[in-house]
């Protein structure tokens, strides 16, 4: 415990930048990791599930502990914990950034798998001259060039001179390359694909919004009402005429379009969303619990 | 001092009730999982969308066209992705038996890894490993709309006969749904994002709404653990309902009970009416949910080094 | 030869491509003729404006900028309006992002443009490092925001930004972050987002700091949920919210304009000034009128479809 | 020089071409679309490879592991935490997924990520839903019938205390709204009760009512979403017609 609870730096875990101790630690850690790796490879089969179960449990246990274990009350950087309870609490809170970085980093290392899958599919297609192999070439070329320009641009922006490149005047080829590929193409295609949805909404609404069943009718009429209320001009005219009719009668004012739509959204939209949210939330909690305790086998064998 | 150690910061923020309530929910789940394990057979109501799965695959087999599956766009492998993959394990098991080609498009590398592993297992269990093509489970892109473009391209070129969109879907939901619809594929869809469900309803044949998605694996596989936890979820929902109803009644009564002078706007006079504390923080249930414990000081020794650095 | 289609069937089976073409035309033409459409701001938008105006000059707010060009249509305008208000109030901003790796860059570009606009009117530059720091992107959003709940400093640990003359420097060396360890040390947390990051923020930080949102229209409903249960102080949703905001910046709340009549009334607040005469209108003004045509087409299409259905039913009965 | 031949001109033109290319799928799947689709996927993958280091690994992993040159002596940021190296082999275990014999190992990193996620669910559940449960419990019986709906306070011009009193009432309309809100939440929630035999009348009627109420909610969601989608389309059209056609091709400003 003492080893973990060290608050002073440098210590066993945190060595000064570029110090011999640090690099020995890194290399040592790497060796340990590799040994662990090999150890697991040649581990008897019956231990496999327990190992996975254990790792999963430890991962979850941290957050659960953090949740239920009393954390020190506004402990300042300059203060030391009063007793064992507080020091454990402090340790849990301090560990937070470390734990936070784990899943992101581990996933990042696995990205190679994704790229591998992409490459294997498209290289096969090219080598076997399958249908559309030309497009696979396009994909690979764009992949490579984006990677190249991306890194070149990134490197050129390092160091105190980096800020200069915020001005286009100081750009070099690589900066232009990255800008063209990323801002000029990638981002624009993002926006384009996103906006395609507008067309699909139109056709979907035209096809599906028919007054066939009670449900469909409810859906349709609510949708139309809300849409109209969000169109400033329509709302303004409707409200205006209502205000004119009401002249001073506050009760009638409730029939302004924005009022009605607002009421529906407050009363039914928010509430039904909340109903769903409770259900889904509990579902996620249950699923989380099952995974944490490895109660179910992922892959749901029938 | 002792209090300070017993009651941590988080209890002063969310209160003991939060931890207790979560604990109750957890216990509900565990109890029912135990019940189910002990062979108590528990009832699950019919879920239309799920009965459609077999039909969809059957249709795909007749046409000899592939089945496309997308386990949502989770940023990292989480329960939603896992649940989707569990359902897809069931789907691909059927597909494998009918020797029907499958396509599983992943958005995240970790999800891809899991899917690869799980689907291979499925084929192995069925003893049909020769039918498994590792490229049928593929990573398309981890950029939302590149993924959308890629998958719709696949749908159109492969002319998929059945498509399953289950998991975490956002704006791209409608792109998939309409594309698949335009080639007349039979679609089963569900998004844990309630905001996307109406679009699936508009464009898909069968839609699992909200929680039905989490019920799916229990419904399909009838594993005791899953069924049990489903019952536990229902208990939890009932508890939530009970809490809401109790809170409402209690709230209503408190409001009625306090009376004082208040303005009657019609007759323009003061008159006796009960007064509601319209500050929600005052309502009992709110205080239960988030108690406002006073800030408290704790005497601690100073850390000399930190002082020095300051 | 195929049987002649009845009018009803025709109306029900318009080719998609035709609808798409009409939509393109309707969303293109009006852009060349911008007009001001009348409007009444939503309460949530007023609350957002009020909470922004409530921040005192010299204070530092957290601004999670989680949008990129894919939601430029709504988010850019919202971001600009929010930043305009803060800049005019000389409020310092700590930019961070959990939504997208590109978000910080996009936000900086937007600020650069606003700066040009600002300096063109003779105001001093809104300086990087002294007025705003860009903390950058956090890949694991959920956990990072969670960490911010315990200590902002710890979560920002190791993050750097360009300090004038010093190059990359640890953000916590910036004057505007002095003595702001906890999230509760900030008067306001604003999230401008086109993705789920808003939920993540509420789930982990609600109650620890006042939170205000500017979200895309699609997220309006779920955000309304948090608004109703007072987990956030106010929000602008989509183009409507943006148009509200731009209007509020022009007219203020409970404040008379030149001709002396109060444009926006609210019983909730005292008078909150606007910025009449300054550049308040942006995307909202440019896009909102066009929107009416597009939505009009949608409604028309739905009506046609249903009319067609009824006609063919009537035909069937004969 | 005509702006079309400046860098910005070329850049915007590329954007327009890409946009049109992707739109062409609306007519039908074609070679033009296929080209831009693959270009899109390629660029996206390439960019991911860049960000994976620049955004995900450099800061949160490498810099913390090897540390950075300290700004001033004894500055804790300067220290490197070598233990972070252990994450590397952990991540690499994922790559065993393709091995016939050791593919189980890929479940270890996945297991850890899942574990972390699951633990968080338990941690955040109450913080997410607690307040919402409380917020749903509102008074459902009016405290005054002096006015059926909420009066227009601005018009009353009351003394502060009287105004507060008038505001603090539960008027009939509010009571009804609160009641409907309650009913909706409860019915929708009971629609998601799976393990209760639907033969029991109460559950059945509640859940079927829940479904109708859901549809109102979905309708409203659809309504509020539609506008955003159109906004993005308008933004594209603005890009094509104003930023490209008007400003660059016609060279007008």
Strands side by side in the biggest sheet of chain B: 3-2-1-4-5-6
Structural class of chain B: alpha/beta
Report mean pLDDT of chain D, rounded to a whole number. Answer: 84
The most extensive interface, with participating residues per chain, is: A-D, 136 and 132 residues
Q: Sketch the major β-sheet of chain D.
A: none
Helix % of chain D is 55-70%
* Morphology of chain B: globular
Helix-strand pattern of chain B: HHHEHEHEHEHEHEHHEEHH
Number of DSSP helical runs of chain D:
8
* Proper CATH architecture of the largest domain in chain B: 3-Layer(aba) Sandwich
Whole-number average pLDDT of chain B? 83
Describe what this molecule looks like in 3D.
The complex is a heterotetramer of chains A (302), B (310), C (318) and D (253). Chain A is an all-alpha fold and 302 residues long. Chain A folds into three domains: 20-140, no CATH class; 141-208; 213-302. Chain A has nine helices and one strand. Chain A is extended and about 85 Å long. The two termini of chain A are 44 Å apart. Chain B is of the alpha/beta class. Chain B has two domains: 11-44 and 233-254 and 284-296, no CATH class; 48-221, Rossmann fold (3-Layer(aba) Sandwich), CATH 3.40.50. In chain B, strand 4, helix 7 (173-182) and strand 5 (186-191) form a beta-alpha-beta unit. In chain C, a hairpin with a 3-residue loop joins strand 4 (160-163) and strand 5 (167-170). Chain C is globular, with a radius of gyration of 23 Å. Chain C has 318 residues and is α/β, with parallel strands linked by helices. Chain C is 46% helix and 13% strand. In chain C, strands 3-2-1-6-7-8 form a six-stranded parallel beta sheet, sandwiched between helices. In chain C, strands 4-5 form a two-stranded antiparallel sheet. Chain D has 253 residues and is mainly α. Chain D has two domains: 8-80, no CATH class; 138-253, no CATH class. Chain D contains eight helices and one strand; from the N terminus they run H-H-E-H-H-H-H-H-H. In chain D, helix 1 (7-23) packs antiparallel against helix 8 and helix 7 packs across helix 8. The longest helix of chain D has 49 residues, at 201-249. The chains are: A mainly alpha (302), B alpha/beta (310), C alpha/beta (318), D mainly alpha (253).
Concise description?
Chain A is an all-alpha fold and 302 residues long. Chain A is 73% helix and 1% strand.
């Amino acid at each position: 415990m003492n080893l973990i609870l060290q608050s002073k730096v440098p210590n066993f875990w945190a060595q000064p930048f570029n110090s011999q101790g640090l690099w020995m630690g890194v290399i040592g850690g790497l060796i340990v990791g590799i040994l662990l790796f090999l150890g697991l490879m040649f581990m008897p089969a019956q231990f496999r599930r327990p190992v996975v179960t254990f790792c999963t449990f430890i991962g979850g246990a941290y957050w659960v502990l953090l949740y239920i274990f009393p954390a020190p009350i506004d402990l300042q950087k300059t203060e030391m914990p009063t007793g064992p309870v507080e020091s454990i609490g402090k340790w849990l809170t301090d560990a937070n950034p470390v734990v936070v970085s784990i899943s992101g980093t581990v996933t990042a290392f696995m990205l190679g798998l994704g790229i591998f899958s992409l490459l294997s599919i498209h290289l096969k297609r090219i080598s076997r001259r399958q249908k559309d192999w030309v497009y696979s070439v396009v994909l690979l070329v764009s992949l490579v060039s984006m990677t190249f320009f991306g890194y070149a641009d990134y490197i050129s922006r390092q160091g105190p001179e980096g800020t200069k490149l915020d001005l286009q005047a100081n750009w070099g080829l690589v900066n232009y390359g990255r800008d063209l590929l990323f801002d000029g193409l990638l981002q624009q295609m993002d926006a384009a694909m996103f906006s395609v949805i507008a067309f699909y909404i139109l056709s979907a609404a035209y096809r599906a919004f028919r007054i066939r069943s009670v449900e469909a009718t409810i859906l349709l009429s609510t949708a139309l009402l809300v849409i109209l209320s969000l169109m400033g001009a329509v709302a303004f005219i409707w409200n205006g005429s209502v205000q004119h009719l009401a002249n001073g009668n506050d009760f009638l004012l409730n029939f302004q379009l924005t009022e009605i739509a607002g009421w529906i959204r407050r009363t039914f939209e928010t509430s039904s969303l909340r109903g769903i949210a409770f259900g889904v939330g509990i579902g996620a909690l249950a699923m989380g619990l099952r995974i944490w305790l490895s109660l179910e086998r992922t892959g749901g064998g029938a | 001092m002792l209090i300070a150690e017993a009651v941590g910061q988080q209890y002063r923020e969310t209160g003991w009730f939060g931890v207790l309530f979560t604990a109750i929910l957890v216990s509900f789940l565990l109890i029912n999982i135990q019940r189910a394990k002990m062979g108590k057979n528990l009832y699950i109501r019919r879920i239309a969308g799920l009965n459609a799965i077999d039909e969809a695959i059957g249709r795909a087999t007749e046409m000899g066209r592939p089945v496309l599956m997308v386990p949502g766009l989770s940023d990292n492998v989480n329960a939603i992705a896992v649940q989707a993959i569990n359902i897809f394990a069931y789907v691909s098991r059927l597909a494998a038996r009918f020797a029907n080609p499958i396509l599983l498009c992943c958005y995240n590398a970790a999800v891809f890894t899991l899917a690869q592993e799980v689907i291979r297992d499925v084929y192995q269990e069925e003893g049909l490993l020769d039918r498994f093509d590792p490229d049928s489970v593929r990573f398309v892109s981890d950029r939302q709309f590149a993924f959308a473009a890629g998958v719709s391209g696949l749908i159109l070129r492969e002319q998929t006969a059945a498509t399953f969109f289950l998991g975490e879907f956002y704006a791209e939901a409608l792109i998939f749904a309409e594309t698949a619809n335009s080639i007349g594929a039979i679609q089963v869809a569900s998004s844990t994002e309630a905001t996307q469900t109406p679009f699936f309803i508009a464009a898909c044949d069968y839609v699992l709404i909200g929680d039905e998605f989490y019920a799916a694996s229990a419904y399909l596989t009838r594993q005791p653990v899953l069924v049990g936890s489903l019952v536990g979820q229902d208990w939890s929902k009932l508890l939530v309902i009970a809490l809401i109803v109790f809170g409402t009644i209690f709230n209503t009564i408190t409001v009625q009970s306090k009376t004082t002078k208040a303005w009657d706007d019609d007759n323009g006079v003061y008159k006796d009416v009960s007064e509601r504390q319209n500050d929600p923080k005052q309502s009992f249930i709110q205080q239960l949910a988030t108690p406002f414990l006073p800030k408290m000081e704790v005497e601690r020794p100073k850390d000399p080094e930190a002082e020095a650095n300051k | 030869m195929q049987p002649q289609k009845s009018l009803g069937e025709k109306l029900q089976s318009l080719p998609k491509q035709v609808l798409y073409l009409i939509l393109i035309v309707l969303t293109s033409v009006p852009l060349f003729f911008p007009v001001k459409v009348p409007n009444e701001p939503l309460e949530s938008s007023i609350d957002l404006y009020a909470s922004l105006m409530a921040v005192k000059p010299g204070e530092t707010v957290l601004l999670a900028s989680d949008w990129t060009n894919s939601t430029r249509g709504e988010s850019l305008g919202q971001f600009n309006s929010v930043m305009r208000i803060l800049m005019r109030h000389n409020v310092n901003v700590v930019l961070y992002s959990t939504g997208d790796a590109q978000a910080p860059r996009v936000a900086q570009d937007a600020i650069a443009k606003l700066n040009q606009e600002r300096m063109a009117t003779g105001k001093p530059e809104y300086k990087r490092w002294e007025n705003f720091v860009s903390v950058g992107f956090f890949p694991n959003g959920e956990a990072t925001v969670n960490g911010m709940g315990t200590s902002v400093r710890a979560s920002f640990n190791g993050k750097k930004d360009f300090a004038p003359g010093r190059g990359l420097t640890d953000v916590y060396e910036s004057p505007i972050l002095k003595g702001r360890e906890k999230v509760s040390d900030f008067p306001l947390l604003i999230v401008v987002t086109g993705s789920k990051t808003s939920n993540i923020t509420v789930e982990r930080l609600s109650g620890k700091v006042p939170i205000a949102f500017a979200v895309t229209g699609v997220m309006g409903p779920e955000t309304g949920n948090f608004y109703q249960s007072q987990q956030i102080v106010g929000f602008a949703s989509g183009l409507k919210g943006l148009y509200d905001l731009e209007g509020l910046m022009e007219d203020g709340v409970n404040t008379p304009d030149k001709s002396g009549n109060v444009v926006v009334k609210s019983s909730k607040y005292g008078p909150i000034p606007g910025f009449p005469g300054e550049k308040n209108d942006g995307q909202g003004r440019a896009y909102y009128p066009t929107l009416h045509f597009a939505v009009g087409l949608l409604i028309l299409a739905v009506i046609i479809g249903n009319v067609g259905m009824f006609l063919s039913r009537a035909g069937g009965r004969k | 020089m005509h702006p079309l031949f400046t860098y910005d001109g070329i850049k915007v033109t590329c954007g327009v071409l890409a946009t049109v290319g992707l739109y062409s799928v609306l007519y039908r799947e074609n070679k033009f679309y296929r080209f831009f689709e693959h270009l899109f996927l390629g660029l996206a993958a390439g960019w991911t490879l860049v960000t994976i280091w620049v955004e995900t690994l450099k800061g949160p992993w490498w810099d913390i592991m090897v540390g950075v040159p300290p700004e001033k002596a004894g500055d804790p940021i300067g220290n490197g935490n070598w233990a972070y190296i252990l994450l590397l082999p952990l991540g690499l275990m994922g790559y065993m997924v393709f091995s016939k014999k050791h593919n189980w190992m890929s479940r270890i990193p996945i297991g850890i990520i899942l574990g972390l996620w699951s633990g968080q669910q338990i941690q955040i559940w109450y913080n997410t839903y607690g307040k919402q449960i409380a917020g749903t419990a509102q008074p459902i019986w009016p405290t005054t019938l002096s006015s059926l709906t909420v009066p227009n306070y601005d018009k009353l011009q009351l003394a502060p205390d009287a105004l507060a009193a008038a505001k603090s009432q539960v008027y009939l309309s509010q009571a009804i709204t609160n009641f409907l809100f309650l009913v909706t939440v409860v019915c929708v929630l009971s629609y998601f009760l799976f393990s209760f035999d639907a033969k029991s009348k109460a559950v059945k009627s509640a859940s079927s009512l829940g479904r109708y109420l859901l549809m109102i909610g979905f309708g409203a969601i659809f309504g509020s979403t539609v506008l955003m989608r159109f906004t993005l389309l308008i933004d594209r059209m603005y890009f094509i017609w104003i930023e490209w056609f008007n400003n660059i091709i016609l060279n007008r400003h």
